[in-house]
Design brief:
heterodimer, A: alpha+beta, seven-stranded antiparallel β-sheet, seven-stranded mixed beta barrel, 21 strands, 15% helix, globular, B: alpha+beta, seven-stranded mixed β-barrel, four-stranded antiparallel β-sheet, 4 helices
């Protein structure tokens, strides 16, 4: 049992998301950086898709009523176990009654905290992920609040007793987003996406990360604005008339009406989770062949990081 | 029949677009395609999202080597779709009646809609409740149905400034569509009334009441608090 002393800015239960309900208007959801979440779970011996906590900008304070093994990955968050500084990317053994406090992310906006045995919440539509917009999944469809109690499952697998390499951890929050052409691509608008430097807006959340052009507003794409609704995906770069670029996140609506200019390569999708307000980003044109190779490389990178 | 295009939009996703100029024809073909996809499950593994005359197919779990075959199969299925006369009579689809309390606080825009269209409140209700709708797709929020069949006399662009919160059950119109907000969300549609019918229950399988292809009629229960 874990008691939430302080919930942090927005801490939610997530796993790797739901499949098969998009036709009902239900987004996939799940950890915004699946690579970091999978690594955190593996460190404590969980299956990669076990439910864990996604932490946003400022972390929670948690009291562990029972001894537990934990690990957190992403953002290099300030952390203390019973007041003693502790590092991300490795497992920590918490004694019965210990308090874990996570502060601010030094390198990125989000982290994933895994507990051996996984967070036990009911599976809704095939997943334990919290859908904040829909108000279901996770813990009663909402972010954690002070006084909440979380049940932990029985630990099963072998933990990994080494720390993840610092370079691998740093690579999670890389600012380069490789971009495939989207179905509504316009050459001029795509060029402008790639040529500009972008700054993450504070109006970003799990539904989408908004980027503003550094140095003021550039021209919006010619056909910016509304078109007939079409299915969308996490990673879709949409162009509203404001001239911003919105990159859809895991909780974005399944259909949208803005032009779909580009698609962030799957290998780089998790990076979106790490953009704190004001952080810069660059889009880089890529091809499907390069994107496939990058995805395979990312998969190998995770395996190597966990093998050491 | 006009063209159909299949575009690769992500490593494991294809978007099928029907080029019909008439929205009804494109929607009919998109609905026909997802029926065919359900029958051809083995050939195209994945899930689909309908839009307004388009279908996004997410091929999670498909190997890279199988992509080309899945794309070709999808293009074949899309080319075989027919633009049935509107409204399409799709087998296996339910017909729903949705009781609505029009006007009042729940239908805050009924008066404005009526005056913009130069009609009385009762005429707007009669047009809205007198039409046969088909669920073209479900999107925007879990269980939100986009209903095609709105009389052209009721066509209005979305509100210029969306409301930060629209109550669950709100019955609304925008552009070519009628819709119902299943949960409280921000929203830019014109609110005509409210229904007590629950549209999305995540603990139920399936969670949504209205599925693409279903037929819908609205039944006026009251107008501004007076029985209709």
């Amino acid at each position: 049992m874990i008691v939430v002393l302080h919930p942090g800015l927005q801490t939610t239960v997530q796993d790797l998301g739901r499949r098969g309900w998009r036709a009902a208007g239900v987004p996939s959801g799940g950890a915004m950086d699946p690579w970091a979440a999978r690594a955190a779970n593996r460190l404590v011996g969980n299956a990669e898709d076990a439910a864990l906590l996604e932490i946003t900008l400022t972390g929670p304070a948690l009291r562990f009523r029972r001894a537990a093994r934990v690990a957190w990955v992403g953002g290099d968050f300030e952390a203390a176990i019973d007041g003693a500084t502790a590092a991300e990317g490795r497992t920590h053994r918490l004694a019965e009654g210990a308090t874990l406090e996570l502060g601010r992310g030094r390198r990125g906006a989000r982290a994933w905290l895994a507990v051996a045995g996984g967070v036990e919440v009911p599976e809704i539509l095939g997943s334990r992920s919290t859908d904040l917009a829909g108000g279901f999944g996770g813990l009663d469809g909402r972010a954690l609040a002070a006084g909440d109690r979380l049940t932990v499952g029985a630990p099963s697998g072998e933990p990994i007793r080494r720390a993840l390499a610092a370079e691998w951890l740093a690579s999670l929050a890389a600012r380069r987003l490789r971009l495939l052409p989207g179905p509504d691509v316009e050459p001029v608008a795509f060029e402008a996406l790639v040529a500009s430097e972008w700054l993450a807006s504070a109006r970003s959340d799990r539904r989408g990360v908004r980027f503003e052009r550094r140095g003021g507003s550039g021209a919006a794409p010619e056909r910016a604005g509304e078109r007939l609704s079409q299915g969308t995906l996490p990673g879709a770069v949409q162009a509203p008339p404001s001239g911003e670029a919105i990159v859809l996140g895991p909780d974005a609506p399944v259909t949208g009406g803005y032009p779909w200019l580009g698609q962030v390569a799957a290998a780089d999708l998790g990076r979106l989770a790490h953009f704190a307000p004001g952080a810069w980003a660059r889009f880089e044109a890529t091809s499907f062949d390069e994107a496939e190779a990058a995805l395979a490389a990312r998969e190998r990178g995770l395996a190597e990081a966990l093998r050491g | 029949m006009s063209g159909v295009e299949v575009v690769r939009v992500a490593e494991r996703a294809l978007l099928v677009r029907f080029g019909e100029t008439e929205l009804e024809a494109a929607v009919a073909r998109a609905l026909d395609l997802v029926e065919r996809l359900a029958e051809a499950k083995a050939a195209v593994k994945g899930e689909w999202v309908l839009g307004a005359g388009n279908v996004l197919v997410v091929l999670d779990g498909t190997e890279r080597e199988e992509l080309a075959r899945a794309g070709a199969r999808l293009a074949d299925l899309a080319a075989a779709t027919s633009e049935a006369p509107w409204p399409p009579r799709l087998a296996r689809h339910a017909a729903h009646e949705i009781p609505v309390d029009y006007g009042g606080a729940a239908g805050a825009d009924l008066g404005e809609v009526a005056s913009r269209l130069g009609r009385s409140r009762e005429e707007v209700v009669a047009l809205h409740a007198g039409a046969d709708y088909v669920v073209a797709f479900v999107g925007f929020s879990p269980g939100f149905p986009y209903l095609l069949g709105l009389p052209r006399e009721l066509e209005l662009p979305r509100r210029t400034s969306p409301r930060p919160r629209v109550a669950a059950g709100s019955v609304a119109i925008a552009g070519r569509f009628a819709g119902i907000y299943p949960s409280a969300t921000p929203g830019g549609w014109h609110l005509l009334g409210r229904t007590e019918v629950g549209l999305f229950e995540p603990r139920r399988t399936p969670p949504q009441r209205l599925a693409p292809g279903d037929r819908v009629r609205f039944v006026a229960r009251s107008i501004d608090g007076r029985p209709a």
